[in-house]
Amino acid sequence: MRVLILGSKGQLGRCLYDQLIKTDYDVVYASRADFDIGDLANLNENISLIRPDVVINASAYTAVDKAEDDHQTADLINHLAVANLANACQRLNSWLIHVSTDYVFDGTAVKPYCEVDMTNPQSIYGKSKLNGELAIKRSGCKHIIIRTAWLFSEYGNNFLKTMLKLGSEKNELSIVSDQVGAPTYAQDIAKVIKIIVLKIIMRKALSGIYHFCGDKSCSWYEFAKKIFEQAKIKGMDHPDKLNAILSDSYITKALRPSYSVLDCSKLEYEFMVQA
Predict the structure, then answer these.
(1) Which of 19, 37, 212, 83 has the alpha carbon at shortest distance from 3?
(2) What letter does residue 262 receive in the DSSP assignment?
(3) What is the pLDDT of residues 128-184, one digit of tens each?
(4) How many CA atoms lie less than 13 Å away from 151 in the CB half-sphere?
(5) Please, what sign has the CA dihedral across residues 168, 155, 269, 103?
(6) Which of 14, 30, 124, 210 has a 20 to 30 A CA-CA distance from 233?
(7) Burial letters for 20-33: b for 16+ Cβ neighbours within 10 Å, e otherwise?
(8) Are 29 and 55 in contact (CB under 8 A)?
(9) Which residues are catalytic?
């Protein structure tokens, strides 16, 4: 079983390395330095040479606010490159495991989003990710699309590490309290992907879209509060004061969903995993 991981130096890519290093799969780890998925011809050539049984696409353009002014790059990486990758997988009869986002929804729900709920992205980033999903489905390749949210880990740039850095520099922080989601540990989703790969080997996987996120929902403010509670216990620097503010007081270029908790029951049932 040959597995190709794209985006191997990113947050999720590094967690996938931690989870798959102990398997006997022939895993090819490819970072942007190895080949750029935005170079469509080069991507096709590399996929054809490697001939993977499973491709895990952990690469993405994730600069949500920057994407509002950089439509072309966001669309290239999150849509056109994904379409190219899916078509290559279809030609090679390879499986594609692709990681998508809660930002495909508009955030107006009052209960966790299911896979069949209507998508309505409010940002360029969200639209580019949705277009990538649609391109995968159009390609006809065997695929697992995993929508996730609020990733954090010991690697890369994420909310947890940003809070710890700011908490060591400032005595007072103001954090948005009216955006609710479910923080997701990247090692957990990497473990789920490992299980999915095994199901693919066993021929017990069905193409489709699945949701996976943490099992506790909270606001960014509540997440930050918990981070600093743990930091205090561990003797780490933390701010003396944490203020809850509304989104209107913290203007960003891109609109964020005010509610983006995901219903993970389909994935839990199909792959026998627990969120």
Answers:
(1) 19
(2) B
(3) 999 999 999 999 999 999 999 999 999 999 999 999 999 999 999 999 999 999 999
(4) 26
(5) positive
(6) 14
(7) beeeebebbbbbee
(8) no
(9) 125
